[in-house]
Amino acid sequence: MEIVVQIKSSSILDIKNILFTIFYQKLNYVHFNIDQQIQQQKKNSQIKRTKKLIMIQIVEERSEGQQQQQYEIDGVSERIWEEAANQYRQEIQQLQLQLWQNSVDKMFQKSNGVPKKYLQKLKMMKMGKSNRQCSICCNQFQKDELIIQLPCKHIYHKSCVDSWLQSSTKCPNCRSDVLEALKIQEK
Fold it and tell me: Which regions of the chain are under pLDDT 50?
């Protein structure tokens, strides 16, 4: 874009008007270019949408057993479009299956606690005389009661800690990972 301006007088007001005119012309030019780019993007997106709709229509016609004509869209045969559509269909089915499985898992609360083979490795003992209490059930330990000591050295009633560790791998007091500690001890 070339702007030719002739300066007739050298007054400051005239120079301001000339600069304003140049600025206004450049601004209009920029707006025109942006509008042109937006129009081109709209045309491109409409073309892409049309191609997708044609592809979907071809696949639906093929699946309904209608005429078996060979279509071509921009030099790409119907077979390629059909393969692409089938891949998308399979991916959608896999995602639906995963969502369904996640819902079922949440509904039935799959156990994510400590496996039984590791629970058997926990240290069991009988309680002696003590004023301490189980922090799961908040009851005092009784003499000769069966207790379990976790790797972090916290102790609990056997029945309390068994039910706790079926749904969690963490110690109720210090939140240390019991399963990881048992795996390390096993090595």
Answer: 1, 66-68
DSSP 8-state symbol, 69 = P
What type of residue sits at position 116? K
What confidence score (pLDDT) does residue 66 get? 47
**What pLDDT is attached to residue 138?**
86
DSSP percent split of the chain into helix, strand, coil, nearest 5: 55, 10, 35
H or E stretch covering 155: strand 155-157
pLDDT of residue 104: 67
Q: What is the predicted pLDDT for the residue at 152?
A: 92
The number of angstroms, rounded, from the C-alpha of 67 to the middle of its chain's C-alpha atoms is 42
> Which residues have a Cβ under 8 Å from the Cβ of 85 and sit 6 or more positions away?
55, 56, 59
Task: Say how far apart CA 56 and CA 51 lie, in whole Å.
Answer: 9
Structural domains present in the chain: 12-108 (no CATH), 116-186 (3.30.40.10)
Angle value at C-alpha 100, between 97 and 102, nearest 5 degrees: 110
CA-to-CA distance for 175 and 27, rounded, in angstroms?
64
Q: How far apart are CA 27 and CA 31, in angstroms?
A: 6
- Determine the Cα–Cα distance for residues 42 and 48; give it in Å rounded to an integer: 10
Strands 72-73 and 155-157, sheet pairing: unpaired
